[in-house]
From TrEMBL:
This is Glycoside hydrolase superfamily. It holds the Pfam family Alpha-amylase. Keywords: Hydrolase, Maltose metabolism. The keyword Thylakoid does not apply. GO terms for molecular function: hydrolase activity. Residues 28-446 form the Glycosyl hydrolase family 13 catalytic domain. SMART domains: Aamy. Belongs to the glycosyl hydrolase 13 family.
Length: 594
């Protein structure tokens, strides 16, 4: 891990590497849990329209909506049955037009979710495909003959589905298996068939012509698979099913496929972020996000959000430490900066537990400080920033007494079924799974947005589809918008700083300070030499819920060093002195300009 104690202004960034989408902050809306306008307990498009000023006032530039398309909702809309229709509880095409107009009139952009690794099993394409081996759509999905061993029928290989069990489901009708890396209701599309990319291109164009400004692309690095479909090596001896990731994550034809989409995106100067699961090699991701690749603008990697996953099971316990976090952040910051790629910066989304609970502290006395600390960590990195609904309020995970009945997510529920059926007696295992769900279940971030202290947190007049967190009476948007010391206003300040000092905070280089310090995460951001009077920024983050003494090493940043932002307001305006110790408060965050 490089520990650069001194950084100099470096070679200037060519102007053609500056882009509107690099300087943007994306606000992610989970439609079913954002705002319910018609009292059916489910968020909807009109609900989103009613909150556009709230999103704009925070300082967001782009709104990304999770899938809003027709879907049986086996996986909350990631199982699409019609790419051209809107899921009726969310509204109509007219509502979407109105939303796009409302977003555009406020100077923001709209990003939709493109889910094209798989469809719903209810999609007409799949219904056709499964109807017969000679149907014109047969080859739109991945069908393989069974393997027979000792007269018994087995799937074509041992790959595991992300939602448990085999990644193959047998179809009685035609006597073959189809591949689904996720639920059996989410069959994988066969991109080898040129009609599939052509159909995807039509979808992309259609939505770009109908108000969308770009896409977030679901598990986009899975679309090209090794066509020999080999058995995966055994990495989890306890299970018959193994991860086959090396055979489909960033597969052989990925870049060809991405360039096909990229060509269209370029015509529209559209926004794009690819979700890239199961790849930690930055060089591999650079092949898609490099500035001259014309594939996707940036990608979500999973190295940080997987730090607390067990090696073979997400819900196995794993403790992470600050050294790991520092080295992962540093790796991606250096790599993309040095290679003219681009990072997507996030700690939360609809698949992740809340960041205060996982990466800092959600204890009542530390939750707010923690939310601001993490906002500082995110907001002071180079990359496009993603904020997930409720993160701007510092919402924590579900409470400790959240019963199993309250969970809705297929991943969690399937895990529970698998665990309890294979270990019916082992209650200690059950207990530890429940503890891990409270940390990592996807439902942690899917509870309704907390607007105010009225019934159901102002989310809905009816019983919400998933229960509201009980802390809403005190933790809600209305209270925070009124309070200049709130997490909400802290985020707003950070977003403003990124705009004012983009040469430093968005485009600047990154250097860790004291890589080996186990309590404090400190780093320097330096703008390129061409910028006029650029501030260098020193960021100091105490990740401990207690006081830590810290000494600013010499030559880290040029004089003077004023604190311009802190979650301890009394610190603002003070000066850090070189080689003098300061006592950092619990979860203290400092941003100093020099
Ligand atoms: O997620 C990819 C994915 O596999 C992980 O998010 C996974 O669900 C988990 O967090 C790791 O154990 C995308 C979508 O964001 C997710 O909501 C969908 O369920 C999934 O793809 C399938 O479309
Ligand atoms: Ca509704």
């Amino acid at each position: 891990m490089p520990s650069l104690e001194y950084t100099q202004a470096e070679t200037p960034l060519p102007d053609n590497l500056k882009k509107w989408w690099k300087e943007s902050c994306v606000y992610q809306v989970y439609p079913s849990s954002f705002c319910d306008s018609n009292g059916d307990g489910i968020g909807d498009i009109q609900g989103i329209i009613s909150k556009l000023d709230y999103i704009k006032n925070l300082g967001s530039d782009i709104i990304w909506l999770n899938p809003i398309f027709s879907s049986p909702q086996v996986d909350m809309g990631y199982d699409i049955s019609d790419y051209y229709g809107i899921h009726p509880p969310y509204g109509t095409l007219q509502d979407l037009d109105e939303l796009a107009a409302g977003i555009h009139s406020r100077g923001m952009k709209l990003v939709l979710d493109l889910v094209v690794n798989h469809t719903s099993d209810q999609h007409r394409w799949f219904q056709e495909s499964r109807s017969s081996v000679i149907n014109a759509y047969r080859d739109w999905y991945i069908w393989r003959k069974p393997v027979f061993r000792d007269g018994e029928r087995h799937p074509p290989n041992n790959w595991r589905s992300y939602f448990g069990g085999s990644a193959w489901t047998y179809d009685e009708g035609t006597g073959e298996y189809y591949l689904h890396l996720f639920a059996s209701e989410q069959p994988d599309l066969n991109w080898e068939n040129p009609q599939v990319p052509a159909a995807v291109h039509d979808i992309v164009r259609y939505w770009l012509d109908h108000g969308a400004d770009g896409f977030r692309m679901d598990v986009i690095n899975f679309i090209s698979k090794d066509q020999t479909f080999p058995d995966a090596p055994i990495t989890n001896p306890g299970s018959p099913w193994q991860t086959g990731k090396q055979f489909y994550a960033c597969g052989p034809r990925l870049h060809e496929y991405l360039q096909g989409i990229g060509k269209i995106l370029k015509e529209y100067d559209a926004f794009s972020v690819g979700e890239m699961l199961d790849v930690d090699d930055a060089a591999e991701i650079l092949k898609a996000v490099g500035h001259d690749r014309e594939e996707v603008n940036m990608a979500f990697h999973f190295e940080i959000v997987n730090m607390d996953h067990g090696p073979t099971d997400k819900f196995a316990q794993r403790k992470w430490d600050l050294g790991e976090l520092k080295s992962i952040v540093s790796k991606w910051q250096h790599f993309m900066h040095d290679n003219h790629g681009w990072n997507a910066i996030y700690l939360e989304n609809h698949d992740q537990g809340r960041s205060v609970s996982r990466f800092a502290s959600d204890q009542p006395e530390h939750r707010e400080l923690s939310a601001k600390l993490l906002a500082t960590l995110l907001g002071c990195q180079s990359g496009t920033l993603f904020v997930y609904q409720g993160q701007e309020l510092g919402m924590p995970n579900v409470p400790q007494d959240w019963p199993l009945d309250n969970y809705r997510d297929i991943e969690t529920l399937n895990h529970w079924k698998e665990l309890t059926s294979s270990n019916p007696e082992k209650t200690s295992l059950h207990q530890s799974a429940l503890t891990e769900y409270r940390l990592k279940s996807r439902d942690n971030s899917r509870t309704p947005m907390q607007w105010d202290d009225s019934l159901n947190a102002g989310f809905s007049t009816a019983k919400p589809w998933i229960p509201v967190h009980k802390d809403y009476a005190t933790l809600n948007a209305a209270a925070q918008v009124k309070d200049p010391g709130s997490v909400y206003w802290y985020w707003s300040k950070i977003l403003e700083f990124r705009k004012l000092y983009s040469d430093t905070l968005v485009y600047g280089s990154f250097a860790l300070v004291e890589a080996e310090n186990r309590d404090v995460f400190a780093f320097v951001r330096s703008p390129s030499a061409r910028s006029q009077l650029p501030p260098q920024a020193l960021i100091v983050l105490n990740f401990r819920p207690y006081e830590v003494s810290w000494t600013l090493p010499p030559k880290v940043i040029s004089n003077p060093r004023h604190v311009v932002l802190s979650n301890y307001p009394e610190r603002i305006g003070s000066k850090l002195t070189e080689s003098g110790s300061i006592s950092l408060g619990p979860m203290e965050a400092l941003v100093c300009f020099g």
